[in-house]
């Protein structure tokens, strides 16, 4: 898009590099801010910044406007992704969250892939970047609304989630040790 607006290939490459660098900054800042202010407002802000900065691209013609977009969009993009772990802990406490996080990442990255395909199709069909930009804004602002609709993370939603697990699945070392012993004794008795 920048090249079509007359920006050099070198400057366009620098724009992509800026998005990446500021995304890294956002990935470092978001969890720290989420711990202090709550993950919901941080993720909502990140997605809102992502959607809002796309507006710059409708009128961008000079390299500096693309640089501005790259810096702000990169912060929002990075900030969105790295707060998931904080959200999980704020909602579910200190439980095993690897599977949940894996599904979140699968969903997020699948969404990014689908959005890329839809954006590419929109550009191909219309010959314009505008529909892709509108889609980008739509998905970012939809994310803001989804996060806004989530319950408050001021309290752990499922504080006693482990109570419903079988004894051998609980993380308390004494309970786990007793369950393992009982299973071994049962196995020895059946042999």
Characterize the structure shown.
- With 191 residues, the protein is mostly helical.
- It is 76% helix and 0% strand.
- The chain is built from seven helices and no strands.
- It is elongated, with a radius of gyration of 23 Å.
- Named at the architecture level, the CATH assignment of the largest domain is Up-down Bundle
Radius of gyration based on Cα positions: 23 Å
Average pLDDT reading: 85
Order of helices and strands: HHHHHHH
Which helices and strands, and how do they pair?
Blueprint: H1 9-37, H2 39-59, H3 63-81, H4 84-92, H5 98-126, H6 130-149, H7 173-190
Helix pairs in contact: 1-2, 1-3, 2-3, 2-6, 5-6
Task: Record keyword descriptors for this entry.
elongated, 191 residues, mainly alpha, 7 helices
Condensed summary:
The chain has helices at 9-37, 39-59, 63-81, 84-92, 98-126, 130-149, 173-190.
